[in-house]
Amino acid sequence: MANLALRSLVQTYGKVTVLHGIDLEIEDGEFVVLVGPSGCGKSTTLRLIAGLEEATSGFIEIGGRVVNNLEPKERDIAMVFQNYAIYPHMTVRKNIGFGLRSSPLSRPEKDKRIEDVAALLDMTDLLGRKPSQLSGGQRQRVAIGRAMVRDPAVFLFDEPLSNLDAQLRTQMRLEIKKLHQRVGTTIVFVTHDQVEAMTMADRIVIMKDGFIQQVGTPSEVYHRPANTFVATFIGAPAMNMVTGAVADGGVRLDTGQQVPIGAELDDGRRVILGVRPDDLHLDSGAPVLSGSVTVREPLGPETLIYVHVEGAGEITAKADGRLPPDVGQVVHLGARPEDMHLFDAESGEAL
Amino acid sequence: MAATDQIRPTSAALLNTRAPRRPANMGQILRWIILFLGGIMMIMPIVYMLSTSLKWPHEVYNVNLIPKEPTLENYTYVLEDGRFFGWFINSIVIATVTTLCNIFFDSLVGYTLCKFRFPGRYIIFIAILSTLMIPTEMLVIPWYLMSQQFGWLDTYWGIMFPGLMTAFGTFLMKQFFETVPNDFIEAARIDGLNEFQIWWTVAMPLVRPALAALAIFVFLGNWTAFIWPLIVTNSVEMYTLPVGLSSFGDEADVAWELIMTGAAISTLPTLVVFLVFQRFIIRGVVMAGLKG
């Protein structure tokens, strides 16, 4: 186990810069998820940590030593790939033991390690099988087993659940989290799925266009987003955003509605008011937004409603699953002041 | 119960229903005729070879396919002739060593060109490919001069050296290595293997069909090679099968029945190799984007 630090990490390909000075400290035993849309630089960051690519500038430290000039095998890391990368011509036993080929351990010691890992991942019965005889979830476990058997200081996961169906993904998510709780190794996990990030991470690193947007616990990034990008990226459905201007100790929305806010800001300043669909309630308190229901999406215990608000576009809210409003019905949506988020309209930064 | 009764006749009716067969149209019939004629054209030389090998010398120039007095005398003569066995061994050694060298060198170069990024990679690949455009007949003079210079005339090495690595094989292997996901290579790199181990342990087993196809192409090419072995060999002992067979007879009279007998025997190994590995050949041809 080891801590990991990225210092002013820059990566360029020709004239294109994909990472603009990434600074990140990951504690020993921490489960950190890098999340962001395609092209944000999360996989590049992981590949730089693994040593599969050479950083243009900046430093990577694992366990306190700079590893920039070390080969991947010398960095004491193990990586699980999106496509599993388990060798089709080898049995599960050989695949798991592959990482021990260059290990100084004796043959019986290697066998014991392989069997211990197989037992931990509930794969003892599958050791003699070839990957083609395994299900998607089992293949994923073999890939994890191959990483675990080397007992590395840091585990790197590159979107390992992307190829699984929804049910299996949920199951594997849980298994990886349990595994981390058992072995306690530092994990850096890359995904584009914010639900994966929220459910698994000790801390989430949200990236966009090669910049870190926010680093925080799942609760912090959800409840106190640093900017409009984080606010809309984290949480499903996305946070509603309505523009307006500060006036009379509150915000006068472009819809014409006056909303009281806690912060003291200069009158006339352009702002964006953000409210999560979960925090918008039908006909409760002073209405913030009003409009007619255009679409309903029943989810069981609750129903997602899309409301067309003049001057604000489509707003998403959650209604009771048993008595949702009808399509076409005019509804008034209210929210508590503490559930509203204010962002600067120009920079998008939280106020 | 009532529901089951209702289903039964429907199922039975479905089972008895046959899709109506579409009548063959003129285009299809024409295709079959062309294919049939093509097949006849391909097989006729082989049939003629077998037929001649069963004829007595006086019947060789008769066009009849079925010999009037069939004989196995030619086979006995050829197999009892010590020279034939020597040529057979020469061909086996040369074809086998060349095939193994091609598998090694072509796949190594193909892998390097496919999986490593280095300056000039594309130029090297084009340079290798461009050698495909130079006909063998043009190359035999420099090959011969080289062989003479290095003392390789009339040796195994002299026969083999031009074909130990081929542009076609390199191209074929490069195409196949494109299908090996980079994740496999990178995973092995992280697991501590050096580049040569990755090529041998991870990449090579994943391109077995290509290796089999390449092995067959190279083996057959060298088994039937004639011009270069004819030029580079002087002594009868160093002849390969095709060169040796052509030497049956003298200036006044060519022993066609013996040549055809030797050719029939020498076809057997290639026929066996092809029947066993034909699916690899087809896949190899498809992957390399080649047409027959």
What does this protein look like?
The complex is a heterodimer of chains A (351) and B (292). Chain A folds into 2 domains: 4-233, 3-Layer(aba) Sandwich (Rossmann fold); 240-344, Nucleic acid-binding proteins (OB fold (Dihydrolipoamide Acetyltransferase, E2P), Beta Barrel). Chain A is built from 8 helices and 20 strands. Chain A has helices at 42-50, 92-97, 107-120, 136-148, 166-183, 194-200, 218-223, 228-233, and strands at residues 4-13, 16-26, 31-35, 57-62, 65-66, 77-80, 154-158, 186-191, 203-208, 211-216, 240-247, 250-253, 258-260, 270-275, 281-282, 287-298, 302-309, 313-320, 330-334, 340-344. Chain A is elongated, with a radius of gyration of 24 Å. The model of chain A has no long low-confidence stretch (mean pLDDT 88). By secondary structure, chain B is an all-alpha fold. Chain B has a domain at 88-239: Orthogonal Bundle (MetI-like fold). Helix content of chain B is 71%, strand content 0%. Chain B contains 14 helices and no strands. In chain B, helix 3 crosses helix 14, helix 4 (82-115) runs antiparallel to helix 11 and helix 8 (167-177) runs antiparallel to helix 11 (208-223). The longest helix of chain B is centred in the middle third of the chain and has 34 residues, at 82-115. The interface between A and B is medium-sized, with 24 and 14 residues.
Short description:
The complex is a heterodimer of chains A (351) and B (292). Chain A contains eight helices and 20 strands.
Strand content of chain A: 25-35%
The largest sheet of chain A has its strands arranged as 6-7-8-3-9-10
Please write the string of helix (H) and strand (E) elements of chain B.
Answer: HHHHHHHHHHHHHH
Structural class of chain A: alpha+beta
Radius of gyration of chain B: 26 Å
Number of helices in the DSSP assignment of chain B: 14
